[in-house]
Amino acid sequence: MTQPRFAVGQHVRLIHKFSSGKIDRYVIKQAMPYDGHNYEYRIKSEAEQFLRVAKEHELDEDDAPFVPKR
Question: pLDDT tens, 22-62?
Fold first, then answer.
């Protein structure tokens, strides 16, 4: 079994199959148990009021500094 690629609190980008050119930035809120094939994560965007679930291969590291909206 491999180790999870992302940690709670880490900033990530959601990779879209059909990209509109928009960058969706999220924070890892919870790493879910390994299901035998993939790790899944609960992620949250500052622009949304709800959590999403994303598979590890749908996420990429976000190296840009995080600047909260005011």
Answer: 667 899 999 998 988 899 999 999 888 999 999 999 999 98
Q: Where are the domains of the chain?
A: 11-61
pTM score, two decimals? 0.78
**Residue 5 and residue 46: Cα distance in Å, rounded?**
22
Contact criterion met (CB below 8 Å) for 48 and 29? no
Give CA–CA dist 40/45, Å, rounded.
16
Determine the Cα angle at 33 with ends 10 and 45, to 5°: 35
